[in-house]
Structure formats: structure tokens, C-alpha cells
Design brief:
Pfam families: FAD_binding_5. With 261 residues, the protein is α+β, with helices and mostly antiparallel strands. The protein has 2 domains: 5-52, Uridine Diphospho-n-acetylenolpyruvylglucosamine Reductase, domain 2; 57-260, Uridine Diphospho-n-acetylenolpyruvylglucosamine Reductase, domain 3, CATH 3.30.465.10. Helices cover 31% and strands 25% of the residues. The chain has 11 helices and 14 strands. It has helices at 12-18, 33-38, 74-79, 81-86, 88-94, 100-105, 108-114, 121-128, 141-144, 212-220, 245-260; strands at residues 5-7, 24-27, 46-49, 59-62, 65-69, 131-134, 138-140, 145-147, 150-151, 159-165, 169-176, 183-192, 195-201, 209-210. Strands 4-5-10-6-7 form a 5-stranded antiparallel β-sheet. A hairpin with a 7-residue loop joins β13 and β14. The longest helix is centred in the last third of the chain and has 16 residues, at 245-260. It is globular. The model has no long low-confidence stretch (mean pLDDT 94).
């Protein structure tokens, strides 16, 4: 691995100042960044470790929402009594990301900033209609995910936390790729104050997306039976060695029905 400077700022403001160095990268849990560096895909001149910023960690309830700091690990989200009680589907999702090592190192903010097209957290954020907080602004979930590995974040902008509205009902189902445990297809369904939302990860050629056809069916009748015979177009879905676009299209309504329960 190439040589690089290493910074451990104690605040978000200090992290932003450190990022002024040319070709520097923020690092949270390092589950993707370090692997990319080892493979020689990227060679930053400096790493800015966000792990020491206490204000970016923790979980609390704020009115009718659960607010989770961007530096909070998947394991902590899964183990949180507040999350388990308010949004059990979110705790379940976090508890099945990767393996135990990944869950104890990976963070909410790191996952969202990387926006892997098969990552689990984007489905929860989009499915619950969450709000992403940064050091500059607040970004609605529908505006945050732009494309594969691409978000609405500006250069140097840092995710500081996410506010998840507490839904009336929610469920998560994941058909995982057995080696990586990433979602071959993952579906998060939520009945919220603003309506029914169905978010799909692992299947879309452009990353996480909402299945509007399934949302309409569930808005009329929020039950698994409402999705009997439902279909999803395969036109804009992934096709790879793990499964064809048609296979993924067939999985989506099945997993959505299971998520509804």
C-alpha cells in the first residue's frame, strides 16, 4: 500500500479543514476504502479518520424519529433498544449486514456515502423517507441517492447523522449473495404517515430505487395478499453471474410480500 498522511480530527470542523489537503479522503469504518487502496484503485495523499469525533456517534429518539449518528456502527444500531422498539426492521437490517467483523467496524455514514448499489442501508433510508444530515445541510432520502456509488454530497461534505421517521409498520427482506452477504435483492417496505414506500437495493442498474407499482398496490391494501401476481419490469435491473434481470424482477415482489408479513 502507498504512503499517506493520517489525520485524527476531534471535530467535524477540524475534519473539514484537514480535507483541504489535495487528494485526501475521509475514512469511517474503512470497509470499502481500505480494500480499494490495497488493490491500488485509489491512492489518497491523506486519510482523515472520522472515528474520534464523538458528536458523530450515538442513537436517540427525537419526537417521532430515531436519530442515528453517522459514526455509529452497524452492530450498535442492531443492539440498540430504542431502534429495536421503534423501528425493529431497521435493527434487523443492521444486524445482518456482512459478518460480525464488518458490523463492528462499518458505520451508517460510511455505507451511505459510499452508496454501493447492493448495500442494505440505502434501502432503509429510502424506504423510511429518512433525512440525511451533513455539516452543510439536510438532504431528503429521495434526493440523496443519485446513482451507482454517487450521492448528492458535495466535495468535502460530511454526513453527520440520519433522522429516521418512525413508521406505522415496516419490514425488511434480503436475498443475499452468500459469499459477500451483500443484497442480491433487498426490499424495505414501510407504511409511513406520508404513504407506503417500497425501496429496493441490489437489483437496480442505477442503484437503490423505489418500486412505485408495488407502493400503489400496498397503498390500497397493506397486506401480502395485495402483491399476489404483482410484477416488476426487468428493463432497468442488473444482470450478472449471480442472477439475471428477470430473476431479480421475480424476487422483488416476493420479498416485498414477505416484508409486509
Amino acid at each position: 500500500m502507498q504512503a499517506f498522511a493520517y489525520n485524527t480530527p476531534g471535530s467535524v470542523a477540524d475534519a473539514v479543514k484537514a480535507a483541504a489537503l489535495e487528494d485526501s479522503k475521509y475514512i469511517a469504518g474503512g470497509q470499502t476504502l481500505l480494500q480499494s487502496m490495497k488493490l491500488g484503485l485509489i491512492a489518497p495523499s491523506a486519510l482523515i479518520d472520522l472515528g474520534a469525533i464523538a458528536d458523530m456517534k450515538g442513537i436517540c429518539r427525537d419526537g417521532n424519529a430515531i436519530v442515528i449518528g453517522a459514526g455509529t456502527t452497524h452492530a450498535d444500531v442492531a443492539a440498540s433498544k430504542e431502534v429495536q422498539q421503534a423501528i425493529p426492521a431497521l435493527a434487523d437490517l443492521a444486524g445482518h449486514i456482512g459478518d460480525r467483523q464488518v458490523r463492528n467496524r462499518g458505520t451508517l455514514g460510511g455505507s451511505l456515502a459510499n452508496n454501493d448499489p447492493a448495500a442494505c442501508y440505502p434501502a432503509a433510508v429510502l424506504g423510511l423517507g429518512a433525512t440525511v444530515h451533513t455539516n452543510q445541510r439536510k438532504i431528503a432520502a429521495d434526493d440523496f441517492f443519485v446513482g451507482v456509488y454517487t450521492t448528492a454530497l458535495n466535495d468535502g461534505e460530511i454526513i453527520t447523522g440520519v433522522s429516521f421517521p418512525i413508521p406505522e409498520k415496516a419490514g425488511w427482506q434480503k436475498f443475499k449473495q452468500p459469499a459477500s452477504r451483500f443484497s442480491l435483492v433487498g426490499v424495505f417496505v414501510a407504511k409511513t404517515a406520508g404513504g407506503v414506500r417500497v425501496a429496493v437495493t441490489g437489483a437496480g442498474a442505477n442503484g437503490v430505487f423505489r418500486a412505485s407499482g408495488l407502493e400503489a398496490l400496498l397503498a390500497a391494501n397493506y397486506s401480502a395478499a395485495a402483491l399476489t401476481g404483482a410484477t416488476v419490469p426487468a428493463d432497468e435491473l442488473n444482470s450478472d453471474l449471480h442472477g439475471s434481470a428477470e430473476y431479480r424482477a421475480a424476487l422483488i415482489p416476493v420479498l416485498a410480500a414477505r416484508a409486509v408479513g
